[in-house]
Amino acid sequence: MKPMGQWGEGDWVFAIALAVLSAFVMAGAMIASRRTEEFAGHPRGLYVLFFAEMWERFSYYGMRAILVFYLVAHWDFTEAEGNGILGAYASLVYITPVLGGWLADRYLGQRKAVIFGGVLLAVGHTLMAVEGDGGQGNAQIGFLWAALAFIIVGSGFLKANISVIVGQLYPMTDKRRDGAYTLFYMGINSGAAIGTILVGYLGETVGWAYGFGLAGIGMVIGLLVFIAFKPLLLGKGEAPDPQALKAPTFGIKLEYFLYIIGVASVAVIWGLIQYRDVIQMLLLVSGIALLGYVLFEAFKLEKVARERMFAILFLIALNPLFWGLFEQAGGSLNQYTKKFVDIGGVPASLFQSINPIYIMIFAPIFAWFWISLARKNMEPSAPAKFGLALLQVGAGFLVFVWGANTFGTMAPNQAGVMVNLTPVIFVFLIYLLHTTGELCLSPVGLSAMTRLAPSYLASLIMGAWFYMTAVGNFVAGKIGEATGGESGEMVQAKTLAIYDKIGWVAIGVGVVVLLLSPIVKRWMHLDLLKDGDKLAGDSELGEPQAAGVHPEPKGA
After folding, report:
1. Nearest by Cα to 461 from 266, 310, 294, 343
2. Most buried residue among 40, 222, 307, 524 by CB atoms closer than 10 A?
């Protein structure tokens, strides 16, 4: 501990985040100690889910904030390779929840799936704290691949299921449902913001093992909260057929067999994460097959349903582009911030907290804004909002490039190397524009999937949505790799040139989407939707922030 008089900006940010986390913990203890069934108008089970998910997001985003730096500094990967590994890892994280959600719906139930996923995540985050001696030639690097594999599979079981239990705590007609998801969503983003700051600070300033170790502790706390307060879940999230889980399968109970399959899948992912070209081929082939099958099913439908499927495909096809650009945050933009931005003594990973903080600030404003426009019959359609999202993510890169080229000054960076330092205000600006773009796309996309898909294709459509988001994360890694130059080390001029190019591409595609949006809106046939229709995708919706997703308040 430094004397307070010697604290820099990073130390103060860490202290503030620690104080906020302490306040959350004390509030949780107060709620847990109450004898009433509800707190602030909601069942106490909601707060169990809030804190369990807060700690899980604390661990996931905290680890993600320092992963690329750890890969480069400790395991001697080039910066380009680090971006590629991050992209492959994130893409697998967002594919596995589709399978985890299916297994929970059909066999395990959400509660057992969350516990199993939490155990795998705790193991994975703990293994991340095993540094070893470093260097790619060291056999201890196997701990790194195993850690990532456990986290990927664990996320598949947990992310797809914990928020489903939130909905199960309330009757479908309960007016508190929107408020419940808003509270839950605040837990997601507060955990992401606090975890990024605390884990990032410890990882970059004290030691990698301390940062990853804190992420592991956070995951264990979240798991213990979820298990210890099971009675407050009121029996929700249980297996659809508990007796079926006891049925013998290959000589053991079906439940245990499913757990064995889950652990065995860790070995498969362990191999995939090391051979990223295989992931690329699998994403390409299976993605084409998936979209081809959706199109095949669409042509079998009558006109209105078929055109709605065309609208769905149009929106899904934009996913890889948006997330491929947006997810530069954890990779190349994170590295650029460390090497070429005037951040003083603040660890670069702390800037990863800007997005979740912006989300908490602007999500209510956007919800109010859409409702206000809807009352005046001026609300943009879903495809138009997608176009606006692409315009904003593109504008974010262009503003960043303009700021770097216009206001950059030659000065030593944190490593003492003379570079053209970009003013830190432009980091805040690019995240601002990317966050507002995210709020135009994430909730709108999920809403469109659940409203437009035929009920019997609900799982398929939600799977396609998350699958193409996963493709976007892989694309993000490829874009990040391109910033590395021939040596694999990030080159400032080349990075800015790539940012400029992808910014204009996003702007161009955004304009085209806006021009096509009236046609796509007609395909949606919103005038024929009835309030009594069962929403497709209700049971398939997993975590509201999976792949950057945020719940859409009623009326948005």
Report:
1. 294
2. 222
CA dist., res. 536 & res. 538, Å (int) = 6
What is the residue type of 544? P
Question: What residues contact residue 228 under an 8 Å CB cut-off, 6+ apart?
Answer: none
Among 437, 334, 356, 358, CA closest to 57 = 356
Could you give the CA distance from residue 246 to residue 361 in angstroms, rounded to a whole number? Answer: 47
The answer to whether the predicted template modeling score (pTM) of the entire model surpasses 0.85 is yes
Start-to-end Cα distance in the chain: 47
Exposure string for 64-79, b = 16+ CB within 10 A, e = fewer: bbbbbbbbbebbebbb
Q: CA-based diameter of the chain, in Å?
A: 72
Residue the block writes with tokens 């944190």: 414
SS3 305: helix
DSSP 409: E
Phi-psi category of residue 222: left, alpha or beta, with phi > 0 → left and psi -120 to 50 → alpha: alpha
Report CA torsion sign: 295, 298, 303, 309. Answer: negative
Q: What is the pLDDT of residues 153-168, one digit of tens each?
A: 998 888 778 877 887 8
Pairing of the two strands 418-423 and 341-342: parallel
Quickly state the pLDDT bin for 85 (edges 50, 70, 90): very high
Q: What are phi and psi of 409, to 5 degrees?
A: -130, 145
